[in-house]
Amino acid sequence: MKNILVPTDFSAESHYALEVALQLAQQTGGSVTALHVLETPDVATANFSAYGGPVNGSELPNSNGGIDQIFTIKLMEVTKRRLQALKGEAARLAPGVTVQDAVEVNRIGDGILSAIQRHGIDLVVMGAQGHGAMENFFVGSNTERLIRLAPCPVLSVKHQQQGFAVRNIVFPSDFTEEAAGAINGLRQVLAAFPNATVHLLHVTGGANGHTAEQHIQHFAERAGLANAQKVVVNASSTTAGIEEYARQTNADLVVIPTHARTGLSSFFRTSIAETVATHAFPPVLTYHLAH
């Protein structure tokens, strides 16, 4: 998770995400790309580099000197100035971390997915509940689409983190056979935070707690997590149980594997990841189950 993308709408929430991304980059020796997506009238597919001009020689639609083109050019100039200011602030916050900026002229979700591919991104750090062009990005279809389609993990940040020191990681699952596909991703997270304690959490709705404990134990053995905390809680809903346990344990990070495929157990559907990502207090990392 060294090549980090931070979509920004210049809101406080996206700034919180940038701060976390810079701290992660310092810890891993990584780099950060700050991305702004311009969603303008009649300009849904043109892509621009951060330093002027269309990418790959593409032209603006209706590029005949019309008002839409003039508006877009002016907006691009303002955006680049704001990104340069953001890079200057990042240099003060995290000296030594390489920070570049990028602009995509596209629909928001498509712009982020395009940037992931273009820059070879390993991790997206996203400020939830932003304003302006990305208002409510983590609510509804945009969030679901990013969690479902992003080829890399997505970390949502909702509040300012006073030093992103990860000591307690909550890993909720139903620990059925499908959960084996989450082991490699979890190991990568733990490699990034080797001193963290992982809490393997199973939320039941009054089901057999002994069976749940057996599932957790089997998963822990298979993943080689001998020192993990193994927890079963009863709650009215899976998401409520996750959020409450994360609050009680002062979790620094919630990690949720997910997948868009049908036929998997209900836990791994994007709806749970989406709800927790937008409601749980600590940052929430989602990633795809291995095929």
Q: Mind explaining what this structure looks like?
A:
This protein is of the alpha/beta class. It folds into two domains: 3-157, Rossmann fold; 168-288, Rossmann fold. The protein has helices at 12-28, 67-93, 108-119, 141-149, 183-192, 209-223, 238-248, 270-279; strands spanning 3-7, 31-38, 47-48, 98-105, 123-127, 154-157, 168-172, 197-204, 229-234, 253-258, 284-288. The protein has an eleven-stranded mixed sheet, with helices on both faces. Helix 5 links the parallel strand 7 and strand 8 (197-204). Helix 3 (108-119) runs parallel beside helix 4 (141-149), helix 4 (141-149) packs across helix 8 and helix 7 (238-248) packs parallel to helix 8 (270-279). It is elongated, with a radius of gyration of 20 Å.
Per-chain topology:
Elements lengths: L2 E5 L4 H17 L2 E8 L8 E2 L18 H27 L4 E8 L2 H12 L3 E5 L13 H9 L4 E4 L10 E5 L10 H10 L4 E8 L4 H15 L5 E6 L3 H11 L4 E6 L11 H10 L4 E5 L3
Parallel strand pairs: 1-2, 1-5, 2-4, 5-6, 7-8, 7-10, 8-9, 10-11
Antiparallel strand pairs: 3-4, 6-11
Organism: Hymenobacter saemangeumensis
Protein name: Universal stress protein
InterPro entries: Rossmann-like_a/b/a_fold (IPR014729), Universal_stress_UspA (IPR006015), UspA (IPR006016)
What does this entry show, briefly?
With 291 residues, the chain is an alpha/beta fold.
